[in-house]
Amino acid sequence: MRTLRACLGAAAAVTLAAAGATALVAGNASGATTALGNRWYAAAPYLMPLDNDPPSAAAIMDATGLKAFQLAFVLAPNGGGCSPTWGGTAAVSSDTAVQSVIDTIRAKGGDVSVSIGGYGGTKLGQTCADAASTAAAYQQVITKYGLHAIDFDLEEPEYENTAAIKNEIGAAKILQQNNPGLYVSVTTAGTADGTGWFGKQMLLEAKSQGFTPNNFSIMPFDGGFNGAASQTSALTNFNSILQSTFGWDQATAYAHEGFSGMNGRSDTGEYFTQADFQTVLDYATSHNMDRFTFWSLNRDRQCTPADNGGRTSGTCSSVAQNSWDFAEYSVKFAGVTPPTTTPTPTPTPTPTSCKTAWSSTAVYVKDDEASYGGHNWKAKWWTQNEVPGASQWGPWTDEGAC
Q1: Which of 155, 158, 168, 257 is catalytic?
Q2: Per-residue pLDDT tens over the stretch 65-116
Q3: Which residues contact 147 (CB under 8 A, 6 or more apart)?
Q4: What is the reported pTM?
């Protein structure tokens, strides 16, 4: 499913890096709007534009006042290579689908950041030869879409690979230098203590390379968390880690700290409600933190009643909510009051007929469909005996109730 392409050679990568600022200007001329204020990029929630039943960005903007979106994820091609793709399968170089989403957002006065990495798939830092070639791959993304912001989502299994993290941090530093004004966030796993051993090693790598992004964000979920109090405690502990690593005082550390939450039911069955988001938002704003975001807008809607609370989904939150409730907290972090008028609700679609029931012994390949738990599912890749919906990072895309 991945297109194999060789990494750019070091000489070519250095040449492109040297021309980075010019490339950004050219990219902007091809369709980017004037940059939003950094607070919007800091508030941009994650949106998968090609997977997990993508919602209408325009509808979210109209309903909430949201202006910025964090598009996910840019990866290496399935099977290896050093060219950027969406999700490992759709080459950035020939993309039109994501470009169309971006054009729609920009036509309404908004903008996007692009997130690289994430939990699944192979990352460019793992497959590119060095920091320069990794940066050259990401520069293609910045140039094509005229980006003003980029997010490095460094987590399992990549952040356990010392060479890969060295490439990613080195690439982030090159991009920051060669694209003046580029907003750069670095997101990694959260623990009760702030972040774990690999997260701390990543911070030390950044220190050794003399790299300081706009923020280092942690994801305090999927690690034994229970509501907002456990999350704000982790943010306090992470602040201490930033102070001790970089020699910052508390205020400087908070000014370089971010929160990336998960709305509703997490992968491990934790629950984060609207009230939890409000508590963390109050903490973030009162401590002058740099970023407040969440995974994801695809999930920022209520499941069908039978599914609420029963499973973790990539397309709904599993908590009681109105559509885009959680996006409103991002809007508030950006300093804007969400609209008070309630938009006309989107009609609930009539459920489609169920496909043939999923079987644990059957072999499924990409685009095969099966039904399970009252939903239809489509295979992302070859799979056997992997239960649909068991993990949002698994091989199945939820196509909705049937």
Answers
A1: 155
A2: 999 999 999 999 998 999 999 999 999 999 999 999 999 999 999 999 999 9
A3: 24, 27, 32, 112, 113, 114, 141, 182
A4: 0.81
